[in-house]
Design brief:
The structure is a homodimer. Helix content of chain A is about 45%, strand content about 20%. Chain A is α+β, with helices and mostly antiparallel strands.
DNA sequence: TGTTAGCACTCACCGGAGTCGAGTGCTAAC
DNA sequence: GTTAGCACTCGACTCCGGTGAGTGCTAACA
């Protein structure tokens, strides 16, 4: 007993219907609503086969069938294969990014907001990571008598700053001079390299221990990959409550408290390879709290080859084609936006 | 019929019990659990009076009583008046802030996290606002051929930055020279004043339209009060689900989606005067979605007289004394932290 | 051999009746 | 003024039979 064309069409109909209604689908429904030219009895036989093949589950004997994770997987693979991602939402997304976005974080937050609005699911946007960013400029700005702000601009256009203590009374011009030296020596280096180079360089300068120490910490902290997850943007956290799957308060709570922990969420979303799209369905997510969720992700890239991830989390009966299309478009938009800078 | 000592003690017992159990309180419960030396019948009479006075509500005739908003108000006023805020959580909070916090936002996020953990309610922390911050230093850092990063350091130690376009090819030294001029002219001014002064100053410089335009926008945007709300920190969003009052999914959803809109939330939390503590109960919040929530806020201040707000949102049957004590301690800690810088 | 009509069977869901018990208000006695 | 006693109310829970969607199986048909 194999999976012939007809079985597939019936399965597809079942999935479509279930995605729409969240109610177990019966044989009669399929034979009537989706005119297959087959009687309910025939559909029943096929459904029985499909259940045996593992594509359908039956909550109880006198209810209809619901698609299994395996069924969604097949469905999604089909979608991805034939690539019918008609981007109708293109203009909607584009419109949202017309206003100039100033900072990385603004863009990310905004993207998550838009994604969740368009899909009605929970959206997560991770900032770009990838090849270590290289320092372009480093500048020290006086803040008070014994503190300075260190600002680095990297080739990815991302700016990082922190206040560090400086022991001596350093005026603006001195700080500028130091900045120039540091920029000259460190420009083109990654933050990791900078950590190693720092002692050599400062050895030649008049030593200022506190400054050195501060810079060192700063580089160390910022070169740390974990830190990149600091600015995960999440939108539509409570959207999951729109779906009957999560009308159970206990379930909703465990989901929502997972949404609170950015770090965990980031690592869940981030675990993906080079794929343009990733779809993880139910158990495939590897997260118990998401046993009946699906996670769809896409990537975008910045001018200098860094990669970021955008993702949508919803019930397994997700509108995959819609979500994939929207993610695709959003990915393009973000890539464009970031390659501009 | 007035409110005598005994009535008050009974009311207090009812409130305490209801806060604990969230179940309508009967006369028998009071007479047994809180040994008043009175029979249930007497309590019943008193409760009947208290209901007439508007301190108790009866969900239906054969259920116990629940405290009204008016009752909580009395209870809280009493608490505030006698000031018995024993800060047991002092050390817990202090411990959480031992590690150096680098940025304003980190502190704020962290504070919200800690607050929500300690109270088990939803916590909101607003960054300091108040007297317009005054510019201390302004510096332009080259980013690319046609863009520069403008960084201002204000007297409150808050740093704001943005990338602006510059048309001509300006090298690092030129930008530094411009920075020095601008710092000299603008130092001590508020951002609003800077907007007005800008044309005069740049009139004397070699004009660089794009730079001027960019700076103008930057000042404008950052002097805008609304912008200060950009970094509202929220912790324990889903804590509300721990309480039976919000086991109704529909209610939970409307609450949670309110928690998603930072702006609205900020304005709700922020509306308060000079008070050290504010307690708004149920209808007093003025927000329909929070008809059976209470909002408790406290303030903290920075070295230069700016004020921030921290708040906790929970069900009306909130553990007010605990929350007030924790908020008080947190307020102190934050004030200390910010006056340091 | 595949398709279909028919039929008995299953079982979740719904609404109504009955029961239980917590809690009240009232009255009369202390 | 306080309390014991009692009738009454009403939500919560349980039990139960009816209903209907849906299934599996069988036998007939093309």
């Amino acid at each position: 007993m194999g999976m012939d064309e007809r079985k597939f069409r019936i399965l597809q109909a079942i999935i479509d219907d279930y995605i729409l209604t969240a109610v177990p689908v019966g044989s009669r429904t399929i034979s009537k609503k989706y005119d297959m030219g087959l009687s309910s009895a025939t559909i029943r036989n096929e459904m029985s086969d499909l259940e045996e093949l593992g594509y359908l589950d039956q909550p109880h004997v006198s209810a209809g069938r619901i698609p299994s994770a395996k069924a969604y997987r097949l469905y999604v693979d089909q979608l991805l294969h034939q690539g019918l991602l008609h981007s109708d939402s293109e203009s909607a997304i584009r419109a949202h990014f017309l206003g100039r976005m100033r900072q990385m974080e603004d863009v990310i937050d905004h993207a998550a907001q838009v994604l969740s609005n368009l899909t009605n699911y929970t959206a997560v946007v991770l900032p770009p990571t990838g090849p270590q960013p290289r320092i372009r400029t480093l500048q020290l700005v006086p803040v008070s008598n014994n503190a300075a702000l260190v600002v680095i601009v990297t080739d990815s256009g991302i700016v990082r700053d922190a206040v560090i203590r400086v022991s001596e009374q350093l005026d603006s011009d001195t700080l500028y001079a130091i900045s120039k030296t540091l920029t000259k020596e460190l420009s083109g280096r990654t933050l990791k390299e900078a950590v190693e180079l720092l002692p050599q360089i400062t050895g030649r300068m008049q030593d200022n221990e506190k400054l050195l120490q501060g810079l060192n910490n700063f580089f160390q902290e910022n070169s740390d990959a974990a830190n990149h997850h600091a600015h995960v943007a999440i939108g539509g956290r409570s959207n999951i409550l729109n779906y009957p799957e999560y009308s159970d308060t206990e379930k909703a709570r465990s989901f929502l408290s997972l949404m609170e922990t950015r770090d965990k969420l980031a690592s869940i979303i981030a675990q993906q390879g080079e794929m343009a799209f990733t779809v993880r369905i139910g158990p495939e997510t590897g997260v118990p709290e998401m046993a009946d969720c699906s996670i769809v992700t896409a990537t975008y890239s910045t001018g200098n080859g860094q990669q970021g991830t955008i993702g949508v989390i919803g019930p397994t009966r997700m509108q995959y084609n819609r979500v994939l299309s929207i993610l695709g478009t959003m990915g393009h938009q973000l890539s464009e936006l970031f390659s501009d800078d």
